[in-house]
User: Fold this.
Amino acid sequence: MKENILIIGGGAAGMEAATQLQKMGLTPIIIEKSEALGGHIAQWDRLFPAFHPAKDVVEKMLDQVKDVKTYLNTEVVDIQKDNDSFHAVLSNNEKIDAKAVVLATGFDIFKAERKQEYGYGIYNNVMTSVELEKFFRTGKDERINNPKKIGFVHCVGARDVKVCNTYCSKVCCTTALKQACEIKEVFPDAEVYTFYMDLRMFGPGYEDLYLKTQKDFDVKCVRGRVCEVSEDMDGKLVIKAEDTLFGKPLKMTLDVLVLMCAMEKNKSIDAIQQKLGVANNSDGFMQNSDMYLGMNNTAQDGVFVAGACTAPKSLPDTIGEARSVATQVYNYINR
Amino acid sequence: MNSQIFHPFVLPFVLGMAFVLTYCFVGLIRVISQLPKDDRKKLGRSLVTPKTAWANIRDLFGDCLFHVKIWKRNPVLGYMHTAIAFGWFMIIVIGHVMLFTLKPLQGVEVEGLQGMFTNFYYPIFFKYFAEETPVFAFLMDFFLLMIISGILIAVVKKIHSKIVGVKRVMHFGFADTLIRFALWTIFPFRLIAEKTNIMAFWWLYSIDLLIFMCMLPFTRYMHIPTEALFILLRHAGIKVTEPRKGYALAELYSCPSCGLCIDACPMSVNDKMSGNTSAYFMKKLRNNDTEESQRIAETCLMCGKCVKICPLSIESCDIKFSQRAAVPYNINSDHSYLNVISTEAEKSQTNNHKPHVLYFAGCMTQLTPKIMRAMKQIMDKAGEDYQIMDENGGICCGRPMLLSGKVAEAKAMIEKNTELIKKSGAKRLVLSCPICYKVFKDEYHLEGIEILHHTQYIEELIKCGKIYVDRGDTKYVYHDPCELGRAFEIYDEPRYVIHSLGQIVDAKSEKENSICCGGSLGSFNLTQQERDAITENSVNDLMFNNPDEIVTACPLCLKTFARKSPVKVKDIAEIVSEKL
Amino acid sequence: MDFGFCLSPSSHVKMDSIDLTTFNRLKETNPDVNTCIACGSCTATCTAGNFTEMSFRRLLLMLQRGKEDEANKMIQRCMLCGKCTLVCPRGINIRKILLDITR
Assistant:
């Protein structure tokens, strides 16, 4: 039993699914469009809730898939189902036959310039959470210049009809608090504010992180959504929000504003997804069969989904789904 | 030919005609009496002023008989209307000409009242009573056939409207259906009666006329007599004051329910919303259905497209506006707090610096910082002496309040802004938001201060060489904001600016046909989903020639389109600042 | 035995006895009044809020807590400019609701 299993996407979900499938005796093949495996998580510095270096996790995962057949800088350009086989054509013109397909295409980051009132791409000192993470990783960013006041805006591109994303992006609250602590570590004298609508600390150790931000890092959480950002004469950012707990609108000057950008569906897979007959749900992510027992299944036999391609997910969620998808694929092959 | 001067079959017609004439006379008195005194004077003056008198004659023929505007939009429909209206007019005229030139009644003892009575019906049934000369007979048959050809098109339109290029048509009730049937059969009956001289058809012809005339006041066909009055009132420069009185009443009854506005309306993206179009509004208001007409009035986007497209130029938006204004409020606004505002403009007064240009970004532009930044860059580059009026908050221009029908409340804001602007000492006022532009142009009295939208301002800066822009090869499409395009016909300025930056491609519907973005503050009732449907349709229309970027000149259009557009949406100021 | 606490003026909102007529009437024509997540965007962006206490978020709460008089006073400040409607992340048709309250 050496059936090929085509895994589209070489991020956390794709790598973990490949690892498990290989252990089950199947032949996973990873197709990754970028130049390296690892996905978004490889761009991350530390992970919430305990500031664990992302590198550790990524390196372990990479090590586990070192024997898996992997195509980098490659995309699937065409795919056909013929009885119970899938025939894929890759961008390097290679053809691959597989018995099952795992879509592990993950997410894209919301393009912050779409929320024009936050001034990303207009004012220099407005940055995204991804860029801040890069700063933590590399220590370099022109915009961060010994800032005295830093603000975080939650729910940028999430829970917002006005950008057509009504879902909660799940991980940004915790990420914001993590990053707030981290920036405070780098600049202990800076004042750090987060502007949230609800702080969704849903996982193990997350509430502890919240406590830590308050107790150890003196991060100030203001309940209110930032609605306008402008620039004053000195080039400092002026934000407007309502302090909803105090019941008054507030104006504030900041040196750096960090936008906690939501996860959006990775649209680069749309064409292939359509060919495979997998629809999108109302949030624009991929539709699985049902959210409980069919979370890895799709409307199409032999096509499976794992990770953030079906909804915003944390890393543990994704790894869990990647492991479960392996079982589903195994059972499908041995049906 | 029957050598007699009277037959009982003419009675139905005489009865119907007498009824309709009486009704119209009473209606005329009613409308005139409801006009404000000044408007009545205006009307009197306009009838004797050569310029308006000529316009009256031109439009009475052009609009009522030849339907010039319908021709321009849809020649088939134009022919249909002209054939019926002009054809009918001509057979009535020729009937009378025959009566007075052929003199069939000469030598017959008809004088006084009886003579008038005879003259009344004689031309309508001429052929029954007298002989036509060949030329007249030809003309009569020609115009009768012309009418019938028009009716044939009407029948086709009824069965399958798409053949004549109409997507959505009005849905009518029983009365309108019956009168339409009467109208369709009048002329075939007349033709058969004239050709066969069978008594039954003369009766049918006359009875049809009775049905038509008796139902006329209660159906859309009332537009035939009302239109003439409406044209006179319009040329007199009279405006709507109340939703169902005076001029508005004349407009209501002049609406022929032709339904051209249905296809034009941005809301007609689905069946449900197409019930919100002006044709239905006019019908509901005519029938005194206050609740529905109020609902439609408050749902309308006020984009003004129906007014532009209307063959009669009926100002339905004005009526909707007065309908909104007619609603009583339990709580009135209190904007007395405006009196204590100290703004930038006042500070500048104390600094004794009087800027040449005052820039008023407007509320919506606060949410589109790119526009504000671009404007600053442009004005800096041009070396303009300017000041931004509402950088740290401002007062709403008043247009959104006005749109709710609260005129007095809007005035309070208008007055405060006027005061601040005058205090600034600026000579020019530049606005970024067409919503503001409209109210500044219409309602503000800023003598000595030139009001410009930034499209006009930027065009001028480029033209007089104050700024230089690089031309690239980006393919732009321009969306005409309703309050800039249709309201003030600012079509060429933005196109000139875009043309100097790159290639400009056409949208499917442009300029006065441009489709509202769906975000309009004009509408109070539309839900987000309904607005989205309008936006998607408008974006598709703009994407017709596959542009690289959508350009508009309104912060609200910008924000609305940005949600649904597959390509980047930018303000005209933004693309200019990119190429400085 | 009554210790007098029942008589003492309390600052509690008496949820058992508040009059929700206005809010319920509003809810019939504008079901989205229930969908507010109290993010405060409307208040923060409010043009009138620059000068006054105007806050749509609080206005809705006032109506839901039986403080109709306060709400009626606050709403007089509104300029109907529509910025709140433009920023509301739940897409609540705030302008329409404001207009309906004053009727």
Observations:
- Chain C has a mean pLDDT of 88.
- Helices of chain C lie at 21-29, 41-45, 56-64, 68-75, 83-87, 94-101.
- Residues 21-29 of chain C form the longest helix (9 residues).
- Residues 21-101 of chain C form one domain.
